[in-house]
Amino acid sequence: MKDQTLLKISLCCTLLGILVILFIVENSEIPESNIINLTKDNLEQTVSVSGEITRVTETPGLLIINLKDNTGEITAIIFKEDNLTLQKNEIITIEGKLIEYNGELEIQADLLKTRKLI
Amino acid sequence: MITEIFIAILLGCTAGIITGLIPGIHVNLISLLVLSFSGILLDITSPVIVSIFIISMAITHTFLDTIPAVFLGAPEADTALSVLPGHKLLLEGKGYHAVILTLIGSLFSIMLAVIFSPIIATIINKIYPTLSSLMGYILIIASLFLISKDSKSKYWAFIIFMLAGTLGIATLNLPNLKNPLFPLLSGMFGISGLLISLNQKVKIPKQIISELKIKKKTITQAVGASFIAGSLCSFMPGLGPSQAAILGSQLTKKMESEGFLILVGGLNTVNMIMSFIALYILDKARNGAIVTVSKIMESFSLSNLILFFGVALVVAGIATFLTINLTKIFSKLMTKVNYTKICLFIIFFIFALTIFLSGKYGILILLVSTSLGIVPPLVGVGRNHLMGCLLLPVILYFI
Q1: Are A110 and A73 members of one domain?
Q2: Residues A51 and A78 occupy one common structural domain
Q3: A13 to B171: CB separation less than 8 angstroms, yes or no
Q4: B116 close to B92: Cβ distance less than 8 angstroms
Q5: What residues does A97 pair with on adjacent strands?
Q6: Per-residue pLDDT tens over the stretch B385-397
Q7: Which of A48, B319, B323, B387 is most solvent-facing, going by the fewest CB within 10 Å?
Q8: Same domain (yes/no): A43, A24
Q9: What is the CATH number of the domain that holds A100?
Q10: Are A73 and A91 in the same domain?
């Protein structure tokens, strides 16, 4: 195959491929998990969990929350933004990477949705 | 303990032969497997012994990985820049010399890195906080410098850097894609090179195995540049040996193919040694092998660091012997075996591994990154700009 033809095909495939991957990134939804089902096998994966906040601890730059659903409890860390306020008993959904800290599983939240305030 | 250390070194060197010679099988992959089985392994032996296995494998890998890059045109990100000068020598029947030049680089650089490690550690310890706060801007300047240094086309260099960067960002944000770097880097630096070789219907001439004659001045300049550039880049995320090679080659006025191969060979090894120092003084793991070591070892003490330097020197001796003899075997085999069949087999193998390691999205990444990896040689710019796939996400993280 001539180099120029190969170059054109490669560039088209690259551009199209990048667009497809970006589309998948934008439109992919993480299925919700029960806290009890999160194990070390899911480490470094993005997970989504819904539950009730049982405790909020504030540190400079971070919010550490304990989240409980019908199956268990887990800690989640959230990088603080200016307008972010969370309260005990609030029902939220968080998406983020499952990590291990001091031997315990934690969620490093990327996305937070508040459902309703009890 | 001594017996266990030597067994770990020998097993590590054996694993390093596999990762070094088979394109697409990276040290990170075996390290991941070791980490998965660490529960069982730590029942049998200690964390230090498992770490010695990983380090021996990683060091052996940095000595041997130029063999497939030179003979098969199938490099990894770290050896991408050795392909062009290496391939040029291969087509002149001097593939053996090309690998021996990288070996000289690796061997002298590892000695320099170990000898000067206390000085490097002291300097990095002092300047890293400042360096860290400016990291995003330093990486932007380094990237623009690398693009501006491309002699063929700065315009194409910039486009490739940005496309690779966008692909890197998209790949790293794909939810639950396992081992995203495997298809990304294997496509850009592995399969693309093999496809170009197949398209050009490369015929390998008979390879000459003879004593290498090279000026001492060339060795001194290349090893010195390799040590300085490798040490600096080792502490900056996203800047790997390929970027360090471009920066390193600017340290000497004029560098020919021979010197450049010594430089590239050395950088890879310096990078590995410096990653021990980064783990010890900064508590930062700079590559997959060291990530595994940091997870297996509960703490990383000075005595561990000294032990690992000793292991690195022993492994360097073994790897030198292995490199010389395996290159001789490759030189003899290259004219006897069907190059097209080897390329097709490796492509198939990388595809199969991608399905196994990263699933269906992995295949998509592999196809796109292969397409992009084909572009730089066709437009005549350096493949190092493809490292935008790591640099751009890192820059965005820091600024």
Answers
A1: yes
A2: yes
A3: no
A4: no
A5: A46, A108
A6: 888 888 888 888 8
A7: A48
A8: no
A9: 2.40.50.140
A10: yes
> B308 to each of B89, B116, B178, how far by Cα in Å?
35, 15, 30
Q: Can you tell me the distance from the alpha carbon of B254 to that of A43, in angstroms, rounded to the nearest whole number?
A: 49
Model pLDDT, residue B17: 92
Q: In Å, how far is A22's CA from the nearest CA of chain B? A: 6
How crowded is residue B303: how many other Cβ atoms within 10 Å of its Cβ? 9
Contact A11 B367 (CB under 8 A): no
pLDDT of residue B162: 94
What the block records as the tokens of B336 is: 């006897």
Q: Are B176 and A46 a contacting pair at CB < 8 A?
A: yes
- Partner-chain contact A21 B375, CB within 8 Å: no
Based on the domain organization, do A24 and A39 belong to the same domain? no
**For residue A102, what are its two tokens?**
């001091």
Q: Which helix (H) or strand (E) holds B168?
A: helix B154-172
Using one digit for the tens of pLDDT, what is the confidence trace for B313-345?
A: 999 999 999 999 999 998 888 778 787 888 888
Tell me the chain A residues in contact with residue B199 when contact means C-beta distances shorter than 8 Å.
1, 6
Token pair of B82, please? 């050795």
Cβ contacts of A18 on chain B, cutoff 8 Å = 163, 166-167, 170, 368
Please indicate, yes or no, whether residues A69 and A83 belong to a single structural domain of this protein.
Answer: yes
Could you list the residue range(s) of the whole structural domain that residue A112 is in? 35-116
- Do A64 and A91 lie in one domain? The reply is yes
> In this predicted complex, what is the ipTM?
0.71
Q: What is the DSSP string of chain A?
A: --HHHHHHHHHHHHHHHHHHHHHHHHH--PPB--GGG--GGGTTSEEEEEEEEEEEEEETTEEEEEEE-SS-EEEEEEE--TT----TT-EEEEEEEEEEETTEEEEEEEEEEEEE--
In chain A, the number of structural domains is 2
CA closest to A44 among chain B residues? B176
Pair A10, A40 in one domain: no
**First-to-last C-alpha distance (Å) of chain B:** 47
Contact A86, A94 (CB under 8 A): no
Indicate yes or no: CB of A6 within 8 angstroms of CB of B199.
yes
